[in-house]
Structures are given as C-alpha cells and as structure tokens.
Amino acid sequence: MNRFSEPLPSLARPAHISHAKHALARLPGSLVDLDASRMAIVFYCIGTLDLLGVLQDQTSETERASWRNWIWEQYAIGRYGTGFKPGPFMSTTSTNSGHDSPHIIMTYTALLSLSMLRDDFSRLNRPGLLRFVSSCQNRDGSFSNTPNGGGDSDLRNLYSAFCICSMLGDWSSIDVECAIAFVASCRTYEGGYGQLPSCEAQGGTTYLALAALHLAPPGPRPRLSTAEKAKSEHWLVHNQDPASGGFRGRTGKAPDVCYCFWGGAALRILGAHDKINAYAFTQFIAACQFPFGGIAKAPGQPPDVYHTYLSLAAAAMYAPRLELSARAYGQWEFGPFNPLLNAREETVRWARSHIPARRF
Ligand SMILES: [Zn+2]
C-alpha cells in the first residue's frame, strides 16, 4: 500500500494555538536576541491564530489591544517618511545605526498583523508611508531594507514594497517598471529566481518574484510569457520530493516545510496547484508537527513560529478535501487564503478597505 493512501494524522489545533500564544506572551519581556526580528515573530504568532480561526474569539479584547499597541509603539516618523521598526531597541537615541529607521519588511508585516487584529488604521500617515517606500527604492529598481540604500537590497524588500503599495492601492511613489526589470534580472535558466541577479534559484525568492509580478498593476507587456510561466511551473513542481511529499528549496536539497509554502504558494499564483500531489504534501506537513505544539522544518526537529505559520498557510492552500473523512476534513479545514499577500482572504479584505486613504 502506498503510504500516501494512509489516513492523514490529526492537525493538533489546540497545541498549535498554545504554542503561538506562549510565544506572544513572552514578547514584552527581554528577548534581546530576537530584537532584530520581533515584528516578524509577532506576525507569525498572530498569523497562526488568524489561520486557525481563533484570533477573534479565543483571545480577549485586552490581549488584542495590547498587541496592537505594541505594534504602533514601533511606528517611526523620520526624515524619509513613516513606517514600522523591527522592535524596541536598547538604544533610542542612535540615528546612524539604522535601528531607529522604519524597515520595509517589518512595515509590510506590521500592516498585515494590524489587519488581522482589525485595527482601524486611524494612526497611519499614508503620505508618509508612500514617501518611506519611495526612499527605499534603488536606481536599479531593487529596494533596500531602510531608506537611502540601507541594509540588504534583494527580492524580499521589493516584494514587501509591492505588498505595501497594493494594500494602499497607490503605486505612484515608486518606479514599477524599473522594479519589474530588476525582478526579471533575478530569473535563472532553471525558471526560478535568485535573491539577486546571477544567484542560484531558490523556492523563497521564486515565490517573492512571482507574487510581485502578479501584485503589480498591468504593464505594457504581460509580466511573464507563456514559455517562462511553463518553465517556472516545471521547476517548482519538480521541487516536490516524491518520497516524503515535502518541498525542497533548491535542486538537490532536503525537503523543508517552509518550502511547502514558498513552492506551493508560487504554484497557486501560477494556477498550477493541481500539478502536485496535495495529499502527500499535507502528509509531510502533518509529520512535521511537534507533539507539544508548533511545527518544525522537518520531522523530528524542534518547532518554531516561522515554520508553524508557513506550514499552516501551506495547508490552508492545499487541504486535500476529497480524500478525507468528514472528521479529518474538519481538522484540516481553513478559511480561504490569499497567496499573493500571504494572509487569509478576510484579513486581506480588511487591509484593502482600511489601509488606503479615505476618499470623501
Ligand atoms: Zn525552512
């Protein structure tokens, strides 16, 4: 008997909910080693609760208000506009370290987290946000982490800039066509995309590139030719490991559950989601669950909030409904998911209706 025809293990919903809540409860403490990415951790934890459908009814209004306030405390107003910092740093006076500057990836994650928490965005300075995004764009079309070329310049920042413009419904502050040319320059002979031009194709950056191309407003030419699309699909489909059902990030590497998201979401965006084995895919995610909550990158590894969120998001896009019994189906059932912005459709609808400037 093929092991992929075996019953799917349960999704340990209560344990994953506790894992995310526990990580959120520790945030206000002194997790100094996590300072650089604290906003991202908040996003993964709140996102996990949102995906599991418990954020509005299994957390208190006091908790949600304290998480909203924590995010707004990271809102920075500077010479180059307004955005969100990664977290509260030890130094609040330094202006040269980049620590006090808004960060483009953290701004994208903060806006989505606030949308999950149903913030009214009355504190958002929209012109300031547009100015900040513009100040992060480089001459070659790429984007840096912080204004004026600060930090890395790669596809993660470009994707975040496109998500922010898409949520604002305003692309006027950036050069979209120059950014698209930068994305094209990261494409490789395999049909995937590297972090920068001439880099090896990788599942995460391929998702970022394809999502950016599909978020962008229509251009003079199609963003991808039919031949390019077919080649990307082929490379992505072949990154599903036939033995485990999981996805690899690069040719020849071991499967890792976060690539189930990056590869699976990229295929959803291309409309090629029926070309992979969804049952085997979900079996791999199920096998990465840690018995006491959280999901690890591979079976038998320790869990973390990043792999937990991304694997649940992947499962939300590929729950193999027809093959499951009614009971198992209920466990793996999720609300509709938006692969472009990486959040539930309901959350994306909230973002798109509350983040743009009000037109009276
Ligand atoms: Zn991973």
From TrEMBL:
Belongs to the protein prenyltransferase subunit beta family. Its cofactor is Zn(2+). SUPFAM superfamilies: Terpenoid cyclases/Protein prenyltransferases (SSF48239). Coiled coil: none annotated. One of its GO terms (molecular function) is metal ion binding. The keyword Metal-binding applies. This is Terpenoid cyclases/Protein prenyltransferase. Residues 11-342 form the Prenyltransferase alpha-alpha toroid domain. Keywords: Metal-binding, Prenyltransferase, Repeat, Transferase, Zinc. InterPro entries: PGGT1B-like, Prenyltrans, Terpenoid_cyclase/PrenylTrfase. GO terms for cellular component: CAAX-protein geranylgeranyltransferase complex.
